[in-house]
Amino acid sequence: MSRELRGSVVVPAWNEAAVIARTLDALFDGIEPDDVEVVVACNGCDDGTEDVVRGTGHPVHLLELGPVGKVGAIRAAEAATTALPRIYLDADTELPGPSAVAVLDALASGAVAARPPVTHDDAGSTWPVRAFYAVRRAMPSLRRELFGAGVYGLSAEARGRFGTFPDVVADDLFAARVVELDEVTVVDGVAPVVVRVPRDTRSLVRTLARVYRGNAELAATHSDRAHPSTTRTAREVLVLGRDPRWWPRLAAYVVLVVAGRVLGRRASGGSWERDHSARVEGVAT
Fold it and tell me: So what family is this one in (predicted)?
């Protein structure tokens, strides 16, 4: 008799041949093959990502799709599995298997939404980038947010709050708006996800532009899902500003945020975006 699935992991992928094997190796190191259903949805890949996935030998449900976009890949992956709770994992993000199990167990035990802890790898990044993430790490609310980790999980109850994922720039921002901040559980005591941040300010500004464009898009098309945290963030910046030692880093943070907002208003969205500055073979973003 087969075991009851703990849940599922959906992995949308676009041209991830350089990193997808490492992602899957990390995920399957510590989970039983019949414990969690993993669906990899390749979206218009032309770099052999599908062959790399098959070559890992891991028991993955592989979908080979045309160019349907990231959200289209998520929709296809969700249509291929009914197992809940569910983790949504970026194809270039290493989620250790035991951490995935812990997140699924938390979701099955009452957590509405959950993710593992996150650490930022800013080795090789310029000082303004390091300053920006130092400020982020010091903000209590951002440490608890669901988005920005390359992985998030939704319980059956949370997933039932909406139908299919809408056509939005950032699926993680949408998911974060489905739940309240106090419904998010950051699972303690497990290995964190390592987020490799942009190497330079130009790349960081582009990343921020996507985030702010995603927020604006949600406000315009899904106003019931958009609850901007600008006021809360501003309060936390002011609290940090009471200590003069933070002033140089706060100055860098504010300049980068403003630049990201300006670029986000000018740029048009819809494409699958990634930070290439921190992305080389064997290095996930």
Answer: Belongs to the glycosyltransferase 2 family. CrtQ subfamily.
Question: Whole-prediction pTM value?
Answer: 0.87
Range of the domain at 257: 84-266
User: Does 4 share its domain with 95?
Assistant: no
Tell me the C-alpha distance between 242 and 64, whole Å: 53
User: Nearest CA to 184 among 143, 222, 156?
Assistant: 143
SS (H, E, C) 81-130: CCCCCEEEECCCCCCCHHHHHHHHHHHHCCCCEEECCEEEECCCCCHHHH
Does residue 85 have a cis peptide bond before it, meaning omega lies within 30 degrees of 0?
yes
Nearest to 45 by CA among 62, 71, 65, 19: 65
Mind listing the pLDDT tens digit for each residue in 221-279?
766 555 556 778 889 999 999 999 999 999 999 999 999 999 988 865 545 455 555 55
